């Protein structure tokens, strides 16, 4: 990728973080890894925040811890008061119309963590414009009430290839879950934005975790399914029967 683009991004982060207490949301994915590395270069100090949704592959947090140790970054692991399994048993599985998971598993825990922190703070994440139609016009920064500060998207104009090229040049280790076939760092398996193929992969690579989700689904009194695909229910019990 063009080094000039890297320099512009470094300058952007340096300017945004000047005189502030900076935090980077690090999910374990490639994009947030690039931002964490860039922020570490641009600022004298930066902290990482990992949101443990309680419905993620444990290996992901292990990787996050190892990266923060390698980069010399302090890591804050933020968790909800109640686990996904407890909430789903009470509320039912999240749907696109009832997307309670983001609020309870991510926003509320982060809001609680940020409360009482230095009021002169700023946050960064790895969202990019090309990731989805919803993010196509992603601005550089957005005020977020739950953070009490601005959230910057410093690599919003980067392409996937540019992110991967930067990580290669910096010699940063990629999350091993990518090598196992997962397309995105799987920090959340609440069922939204996942496909049957991804759950089949989860079944193959992490059968115990898959089984815990299957048991939860089987315990639902209303017969709800964790996964929806093309407007119809897809049950994990049916995926469990398929031979890999």
Brief descriptors of the model:
single chain, 244 residues, alpha/beta, Rossmann fold, 2 domains, six-stranded mixed β-sheet, 10 helices, 8 strands, 45% helix
Plain-language structure description:
The protein is of the alpha/beta class and 244 residues long. The chain is 45% helix and 14% strand. The chain is globular and about 55 Å long. The chain folds into two domains: 3-183, Rossmann fold (3-Layer(aba) Sandwich), CATH 3.40.50; 194-244, no CATH class. The termini are far apart. A six-stranded mixed β-sheet has the order 3-2-1-4-6-5.
- SSE series: HEHEHEHHEEEHHHHEEH
- Based on Cα principal axes, name the global outline: globular
Number of domains: 2
Specify Rg, calculated over alpha carbons: 19 Å
CATH topology name of the largest domain, in short, is Rossmann fold
Give the helix/strand class.
alpha/beta
Biggest beta-sheet profile: 6 strands, mixed
Largest beta sheet: what is the strand line-up?
3-2-1-4-6-5
Span of the ends, CA to CA: 38 Å
Low-confidence region ranges: none
What's the number of helices?
A: 10
Mean of pLDDT: 92
Percent range for β-strand residues: 5-15%
Query: What is the tally of beta strands?
Result: 8
Q: According to CATH, what is the class of the largest domain?
A: Alpha Beta
CATH arch. level architecture of the largest domain: 3-Layer(aba) Sandwich
Task: Let me know the CATH homologous superfamily of the largest domain.
Answer: HUPs
Q: Helicity level, as a percent range? A: 40-55%
């Amino acid at each position: 990728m063009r080094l000039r683009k890297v320099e512009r991004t470094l300058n952007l982060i340096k300017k945004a973080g000047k005189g502030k207490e900076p935090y980077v949301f690090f999910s374990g994915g490639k994009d947030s890894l690039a931002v964490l590395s860039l922020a570490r270069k641009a600022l004298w100090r930066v902290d990482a925040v990992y949101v443990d949704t309680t419905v993620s592959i444990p290996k992901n947090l292990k990787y996050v811890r190892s990266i923060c140790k390698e980069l010399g970054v302090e890591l804050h692991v933020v968790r909800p008061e109640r686990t996904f399994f407890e909430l789903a048993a009470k509320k039912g599985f999240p749907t696109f119309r009832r997307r309670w998971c983001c609020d309870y598993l991510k926003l509320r825990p982060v809001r609680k963590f940020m409360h009482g922190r230095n009021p002169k703070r700023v946050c960064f994440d790895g969202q990019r414009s090309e990731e989805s139609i919803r993010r196509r016009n992603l601005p550089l920064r957005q005020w977020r009430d739950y953070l009490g500060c601005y959230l910057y998207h410093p690599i919003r104009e980067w392409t996937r290839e540019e992110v991967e090229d930067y990580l290669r040049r910096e010699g940063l280790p990629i999350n091993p879950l990518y090598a196992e076939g997962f397309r995105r760092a799987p920090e959340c398996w609440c069922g939204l934005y996942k496909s049957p193929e991804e759950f089949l992969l989860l079944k193959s690579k992490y059968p115990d975790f898959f089984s815990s989700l299957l048991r939860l689904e089987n315990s639902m009194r209303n017969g709800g399914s964790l996964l929806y695909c093309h407007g119809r229910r897809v049950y994990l019990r049916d995926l469990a029967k398929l031979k890999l």
